[in-house]
């Protein structure tokens, strides 16, 4: 029996519409990301590229509040998928840009990276605050946050 090996991409997306990118505007669905990614692969690599990548391609995790998503693919299709991601321009009728943050072999490694990445982003935001009152409010809001993690079984929409 052959073991299927996967690769996981941690990507960050940003909605670049002219409108304000609030929570409702920035929300995208996992199946619409899959459709856009498949059409991008078809444009770049043809029907053969779609056939190679279709079997193991899946959006494992999407968080619309932090605009982070995990994409799982088979190891053999890794180069086809990663070459198609920069050409994704529209998802759900919204102009979107994607930035690949990390590539991992397991979802646990990607989850560890995501925790470190988000901690760095919070420290940057904390350093940019100017007054003590702003810092106290920031720490209070940080204390109210609930920890979350990636559920392996299905897509988690937070």
Summarize the structure.
With about 160 residues, this protein is α+β, with helices and mostly antiparallel strands. About 45% of the residues lie in helices and about 25% in strands.
Major beta sheet, strand line-up: 4-5-1-3-2-6
- Gross morphology: globular
Strand share of the residues?
15-25%
Please, how many helices? 5
Order of helices and strands: EHHEEHEEHHE
Rg calculated over all Cα atoms: 17 Å
- The count of DSSP E runs of length 2 or more, i.e. the number of strands, is 6
Please estimate the helix content: 40-55%
**Termini distance?**
36 Å
Main location: nucleus
Protein name: Ribonuclease P/MRP protein subunit POP5
Function: Component of ribonuclease P, a protein complex that generates mature tRNA molecules by cleaving their 5'-ends.
Family: Belongs to the eukaryotic/archaeal RNase P protein component 2 family.
Question: How does this structure look, described?
Answer:
19% of the residues are buried. The protein has helices spanning 23-26, 30-54, 78-84, 107-128, 132-144, and strands spanning 6-15, 58-63, 68-74, 90-91, 94-104, 156-157. A six-stranded mixed beta sheet has the order 4-5-1-3-2-6. The protein is α+β, with helices and mostly antiparallel strands and 158 residues long. A hairpin with a 4-residue loop joins strand 2 and strand 3 (68-74). The longest helix has 25 residues, at 30-54. Helix 2 packs across helix 3. 45% of the residues lie in helices and 24% in strands. It starts with 5 loop residues before the first strand and ends with a strand.
Short key terms for the protein model shown above:
158 residues, alpha+beta, 6 strands, 24% strand, tRNA processing, nucleus
